[in-house]
Amino acid sequence: MYKLDRIGRSTKHLVDLISEFEEKDINFVSINENIDTTTAMGKLVVTIFCGLAQFERDIISERTKSGLVAAKARGRNEMVADQRKTSLG
Asked: Is the CB of residue 54 less than 8 Å from the CB of residue 13?
């Protein structure tokens, strides 16, 4: 795998995938992060990175939601909707 955060949709999903790989004797190696799950350190690093990747996705989601609320409060939501109607019409 080139980059760790590209394989799983969530921390739980990624951990489940790596567990499934282990059950099937498949080694997971992330090229970008230089992680190899055949070692104890590699397994620890994967778990930590999984948590960080989930944290990053959650922060992005929170910021997006906050931005939408702020835009709506400033009246941008109606303005964007009006622009869409005008460009489609």
From this structure: no
